[in-house]
Amino acid sequence: MINKIFLLKIFLFSFFFCQSQTGFEFYSNVNEQLRWNQLAKEDQYGNYILPVQIDNQEGTSVEFIKLNSKGELLSNSNFSLDSFNLFISEFFLFENKIIVLASILDKDQQFEQQFWVGTFDLLFNLQSELFFDPLGDGILKTIKAIIENEETIVMAGAVTTSSENRDFGCKLFLDSNTFDFSFIGNSFNIINDLTVNFDSTGYVLIGGDDILFTNEDFDLIDKEENFEQLVWLQSWIAPITDSTFLITGRSNKNDLPFPGRGIVTGIFDDSFDEITHSKIFSSSEDTLIYPANNNAMDRNNDFIYVGGTFNVDLNNIIDGNKNSAFLLTKLDNQMNQIWRRNYRLDSHYYYMAGVLATSDGGCLMYGHRFTEDNQREATAIKVNKEGEILGTSSIISTFENFNIFPNPFQTQIVIQQNNKQGFLKLYDLNGRLLFNKKITDSNTYLDLSKLLQGSYFYTYGDKNGWYYKSGTLIKQN
Questions:
Q1: Lowest-pLDDT range, 85-94, 136-145, 461-470?
Q2: What does each C-alpha distance from 272 to 112, 156, 227, 237, 268 come to in angstroms?
C-alpha cells in the first residue's frame, strides 16, 4: 500500500465537493450537504476510518465514521468547533492517536483562514488543539499534506492574496507551535499532490501542467513543464521504487478517443520520462469517465487500484442526473489491466471521491450517491481482490426514534425504538462482533453483565445493512 506518510491526496476547495454512493450512506437534511474531503485510512486491526464533512445552517462539522474489515459500520462521531467552520484537509493515524489537519474559517465570515491541528484519541475525543496563521489575509485554494513525524506536518498548496495567486509550501511544528512558510517561485499551478523526493532532501509537487522540484525549504530547484501531454488538472503522484514514480490523473493523451475525458496511470523514471502507462476510457463520447476527486489511486503489494466515476454528468459533475457508477480498475506493476468493474446498486447518480487499497488485497471505494429527492448520501463499498463486494453499509443521520440507556451501564441496558425494528450489534474496539440481537419490541431489556469493563461500539439497523443509529457503550463495574 502506498505509504500515507509520504503521500498527500488531492483536496480541491475550488473545484468539487464529494458525497456518497450505495453501500455506506449518510443521509442529510434538505439544508445539509455532505462531502468527502480527505482519505480513508486503515488501522492496525483492519478497520477503516472515513471522515465526512457536513454543512448545515449551524456551520461546518465533520463526521468520523469507522467501518470494520467488511465495510460494516462500527461507529460514527460528530465533531465541530464553536466559533469556526471546519474544513478537514488530511488526517494521520497512529497506534494510539489521530492527528487532524484542517483549515478553519470564522463563522462571522471574516475570511481569515487559519490552520487548525487537533489530536484525538481513537474514539475521536479531542485531546489537544493548535492554531496556526501563516496565510495572513490569503484565501486558501488547495492544500496537500504529508507528515514527516509526529511533530512535523508538511503541506503545499495554492493561495489567493489581495494581489495575486501563488503556490506555497509550509511546515507546521507541533512541538513548538511554530511554522515556516514560503512561496514557491513565481508559479501558480493549483498544486494537486505532494511527495518526498527519492533522496529525502526535498519535495516533488504536481499541479496544472508542471512538476515542481523543491528543497526542504520549498525553494524551487527545477521544473518539468508541459506535462499536460499525459494528465491534466486532477493528478496524483507517489514513489513506487527508489527510482520510479506512479502518476494518475485525468487523461489528456491525444491517442484517446476523447482527450480529457478518461483516466491514465503511468510509471516514470526519476527524470520523469515515461516507462509505461495504462488508459481507462469509454468508447462513447456521451459516456465519460473522470478520476475520483480526492484520491484516484492506491497501491497494495504488487497491484494498483485506480478509481473514478463512469458516465459522469458534465452539466453537474457532483450532483448529476445520469445513472452513473463507481469505476474500479486493478493493474499490476507493469500497467497490465487485471480487471475493471462498475459498481452501481441502483439507478442513481454516483460520484467517487477515492479508493483505499486494503491490507487484505482488496479495496475500499468511497464517494456519494445523489437521489431523486435531493439527498446526498455518503457511501463506501468494500471489495475483495477479485472485485467482489464484501460489504456495504448505510447510516441515516436524522433518525431520532431510538434510544439506548443507561450509558455508562453496569449490568443491563434498555433499547427503545419506535416503528423501526432491527438488529442491535455490539463490537469490541478491534471490530470483533460480540453480540447480535433482533429488536422487535418498543422496549427491550438486555443483560450484558458478562461483558468486561470497557468501551464497545454498537450499531442498530436492518438486515440489509441500513444503519439507523450507532455509538459507543461503556461498561462499568
A1: 461-470
A2: 38, 21, 9, 11, 5
Q: Which residue has the cell 450537504?
A: 33
Alpha-carbon distance of 314 to 419, in angstroms, equals 41
4-395 has which fold? Answer: Methylamine Dehydrogenase; Chain H (2.130.10)
Q: How far apart are CA 123 and CA 413, in angstroms?
A: 21
Asked if the bond preceding 408 is cis, omega within 30° of 0, the reply is: yes
Which residue, 268, 235, 154, 269, is CA-closest to 202? Answer: 154
Tens digit of pLDDT for each residue in 90-111? 999 999 999 999 988 887 765 5
Question: Per-residue DSSP letters for 240-265?
Answer: SSSSEEEEEEEE--TTSSSTTSSEEE
Ramachandran area for residue 77 (φ above 0: left; ψ -120 to 50: alpha; else beta): beta
Q: How many CB atoms lie within 10 A of CB 345?
A: 16
CATH code given to domain 402-475: 2.60.40.10
Please tell me the distance from the alpha carbon of residue 108 to that of residue 124, in angstroms, as a whole number.
Answer: 27
Q: pTM here?
A: 0.82
Q: Where are the domains of the chain?
A: 4-395, 402-475
Tens of pLDDT, residue by residue over 21-66, are: 333 333 333 233 444 445 799 999 999 998 887 776 777 888 888 9
Distance between CA 400 and CA 323 in Å, rounded? Answer: 31
- CA 434/CA 193 separation, integer angstroms: 41
Residue given cell 516533488 in the structure block: 204
Residue among 113, 21, 51 nearest 394 (CA): 21
Give ∠ CA 160-166-167 in degrees, rounded to 5.
120
Tell me the CA end-to-end span of the chain in Å, nearest whole number: 42
Q: Which of 358, 356, 264, 344 minimizes the C-alpha distance to 309?
A: 344
